[in-house]
Amino acid sequence: MKGTNLFLKIFTILVFLFLYSPIIVMVVFSFNESKSIGVFTNFSLRWYEKVINNPEVWKALFNSFWVGAVVTIVSLILGLMMAMAVTRYNFSGKSILESLILIPVIIPEIAEALSLLIMYIFLNIPLGPVTVIIGHVAFCISYVTIVMRARMAGYDRSIEEAARTLGANEFQTFFKITLPTLYPAILAAGLLAFTLSFDDLIKTLFTTGPGFKTLPLVVWSSAARGGVSPELNSLSSFALSISFLFAVFRLRVERRLER
Amino acid sequence: MSDVFSVELENIVKRFGNVVAVDHVNLKIRENEFFSLLGPSGCGKTTTLRIIAGLEEPDEGVVRIYGEDVTDVPTHKRNIGMVFQHLALFPHMNVFENIAFGLKMRKVQKEEIKKRVKEILEIVKLEGLEYRRVNQLSGGQQQRVALARALVIEPEVLLLDEPLGALDLKIRQHMMVELKNIQRKVKTTFIYVTHDQTEAMTMSDRIAIMKDGKIQQVGTPLEIYYRPSNTFVASFIGEAVNLIEGEVVENGLVDTSLGTIHCAGSLTKGRVAVMVRPEMVEIGDKLYNVDNLFRGTVQSIIFKGSYIEYRVDVEGNTFVIHKHGSAELGRLHHLGDIVEIGWKKNSSIIIPI
Q1: How many angstroms separate the CA atoms of A82 and A103, rounded?
Q2: Which positions in chain A touch B88 (Cβ < 8 Å)?
Q3: What's the whole-model pTM score?
C-alpha cells in the first residue's frame, strides 16, 4: 500500500513536471541577463525593460483588452439568451440547436478560422478588429451557453413568479430577480469568454487585418521574425501572467458558485 | 357572514395537452374567508390557485376578483399575494429587501416602506431579523418572511400553495394556529391549497374538495365531515369511514345485505351508501338505546392513545370503530370476542352513489 502511494506521488510529480517545466524554463530564462537562452548567467530585468518600453506591446495589450471586453459582452448577451431559450422553452429544432451550439467546442480551431476567413473574403468584408471580434464571439458564445445552461437547468422559476405576484412586470422581474440570481454564473462565463478571447491566436491570425495586433499576435510575430529570444521569453511571461490572473479569478468565482 | 365575494370562478377549464387539469370549476369565495382547496395530488387544486393568480391562463371561464373580471389581467396587475410551496424567497436579498420588494414595485415612499415592513414583521413575529440573509433563517422563519412579503402589499386575496409542506410536524401544527390568527388580524381572504386534511380542517371557514379537476363538495369542515355529498368525500375526509351499500326503501330506511339500516332522513332515492363515522359506532357486550344493532367478531385491536380502534367483522363486512376514553382496561374486548356494535339512526348518513 505504502509503495503504491509513493509510486503515485512520484508519478503525479512527473506529470506536472512534464506539463509545467517548459513554462518554468521560459519564465526563469526571461530573467536571464545573457542573450543566450542556453545558459543562465545573472538575474536581470533588462528584457522586461525592453518589453515595457516597446510601444507595439502596449498597443497590442490595449487591443487585446478591448477586443476581449467587447467579445465578453456580446457573447454573454447572446449566450444568456440561448441558454434561456433551451432551458425554458420547447420549440421544434431545439435538440438540433443544442448540438449545434457544441460544434465550435469540438471542431479544430484552424478549420473554423479558415472557414471564417473564406466567408469574409467571399462576402467582401474588410479584415480588421470587427472580423476578429466576430470570430471570437463565434466560439465564446458556445462556452458561455454551456456554462449558463448548466446553471439554469436547476433554476427555480418560482422566484420569478413570486416577483410577478408582487407587482413586477416581466422586465422588472428579469433585471431585479433573474439577472442578479444568475450573477455568479454570468461572472464565471464572462471571465471564461474573456480569457478565451485574450489567449486566442489562430482565429485572430486568420481574421485580423493589416496593422491590427493582439498580444498573442505580437508574441507570435516576434517569434516568427527573430526566433526564440530572451525578450520573447519575457514578453510571453508577461502575457502568461495576465491570463493566469484571469484564470485564478475565474476559479475563485466558480468555487464561490459551488458553495 | 359577508355576502361580498372576493374571488369568483365561473366555469373554469384548463387543459394540459390531453389532460383536463381543471374541469368546469365554479367557486364563490367570500370576503375575509379562510377557504381551502383540498384534494389528492394531481386533482387540479394548485392549477386552480395559479389561475386565480394569473400564473396560468384558463382555456375557458371567467375569474373575478371583487366583481371585476380579471381573466385577461396579467399577474403583476392583479392585487394578489401568494405564498409558494417552496417559499421562493429572493436569495440575493435580506429579509427587509424581500418584504419591501412588492412595495418598491408599487413605488411606495421609502419612509412608508420602512414603517409597513416593521408593522408586518411584528404581525409575523420576526422583529429584529430585518437584515438577516434569508438562508440564515430556520424553516419556520423563512415561512414567516414569505407570508410577510405577500401580506405587506395588502393584497385583496392571499393565495397559499401548500406553504407548510416542508416543515416538520411540530412547527407545522404551530404555524396552523398562527396562520389562522394572522388571517383574523389582517382581515384578508386566504385561499389555501393543501392535500393535508388536518391543515384544511384546522384553519378553514370553508373547504372545497377536488378530485380529477372537479369540485366534489364545498362546505364547512363540519359539513364536509358529517354530511359528505359523495363517497369520495366520505372516504377522503377523516381517518376511516364505514360505508354500506344498499337501496332506499322508505325515507330513512335503507335495505342492505346486513338487513334494514335506520338512517337520518334523506331525499335521496335508489342505490345509496350509508356512512357511519367510526367514533359514532358503539361497541359492547350488550348495547341498549341504539337504532341499528349487529353482532360481530373482533378482528383487530389497535391502541391509538386517546382512543382504541377496533375492527369488527359482521357477516363479511368490516366495521371500524373508534372507542374513546377506554381507561378501564378490564372492559377491553379481545381478539375473537363476539361483540355487539350499534349506532343511533341520526349517525348514519345516506350518500348517493
Answers
A1: 15
A2: 156, 158-159, 161-162
A3: 0.81
